[in-house]
Amino acid sequence: MLSRRSVALIILALLATANLVFHRWFLHAVEQLALARERPLELYSFIGDDYPSRLPLQSARPAVRLTVEDTLEWLYTATRGDGDVRLGPQRRLFSVTMSHQLHCLRSIRATLKEEGVPEGKTRSHFVHCLNLLREHTLCAADNTLEPVDALSPNSSFERLHGEHRCMDWDAFYDTMLHNYLDFKHWISERAS
C-alpha cells in the first residue's frame, strides 16, 4: 500500500504534468491568434505579396444588424472616387471586393434597363458580374432564415426578411472616402 506521502507526490506530479500540457496548449493558441491577426498597415511594404488580406476599416464595429427590405436606393451604393483604394508609401492600387460587387450590381441593373440582348463587351461584363456575385454569395453564405410568405406578391406582409449580422458598411464607406481624399492630397503634393 502506498503511503500518504507517495500518493501526494503522485498527485503533485500529475498536476504538474497537466499544468505543463495546459501551458503548452495555451501558448500555442496565443501564437495562432497572433499569427492570424493582421499587422498594422505601416508594417507592410506593399511590394509583391506583402500586403494585408483585407482593407482595415476605420472605427468598425464587429458587426451591424441589417433588416432586409425592398428598397430602391441604388444611387447610394457607390463609394467616392473609383471604388478602389491606394495603400502603402507608393499608393499601390487595390480593388475592394465590396466595391466590385456593388459595381456589378449597378452594371447588371443598367444592362437590364437597356433594350435588346446584351452583346460583345457588355455581354461579357454582364456574365462576369453574374459569376462574381454567385461566387461571392457562396463565399459569404448567410444562413439567416427568411419567411417564405414575404416573397408572395399578394402578401400584406411588409416584406421584411429577418435580421442579418453584417460588416459595418458605414465604416467601409468612411474608410473608402478617407482613402480617396488621402490619395487626392498625395497626388496634389507630388504635382507641386
Short summary:
One of its GO terms (biological process) is mycotoxin biosynthetic process. With 192 residues, the protein is mostly helical. It has helices at residues 4-36, 97-113, 120-139, 169-191; strands at 64-67, 84-87, 92-95, 163-166.
Q: Could you walk me through the main structural features you see in this protein, from its secondary elements to its overall organization?
A:
It is built from four helices and four strands. The protein has helices spanning 4-36, 97-113, 120-139, 169-191; strands at residues 64-67, 84-87, 92-95, 163-166. A two-stranded antiparallel sheet has the order 1-4. Strand 2 (84-87) and strand 3 (92-95) form a beta hairpin. The longest helix has 33 residues, at 4-36. 3% of the residues are buried.
SSE blueprint and pairings:
Elements: H1 4-36, E1 64-67, E2 84-87, E3 92-95, H2 97-113, H3 120-139, E4 163-166, H4 169-191
Antiparallel strand pairs: 1-4, 2-3
Pathway: Mycotoxin biosynthesis
GO biological process, one term: mycotoxin biosynthetic process
Pfam families: UstYa (PF11807)
Query: Major beta sheet, specifics?
Result: 2 strands, antiparallel
Helix-strand makeup class: mainly alpha
Number of helices: 4
Number of strands: 4
The low-confidence runs, each spanning 5 or more residues with pLDDT under 50, are none
Helix-strand sequence: HEEEHHEH
Biggest β-sheet: strands ordered side by side in the sheet? 1-4
Fraction of residues in helix:
40-55%
- Strand coverage percent: 5-15%
Shape: elongated
Note the gap between the termini.
91 Å
Mean pLDDT level: 83
CA-based gyration radius: 26 Å
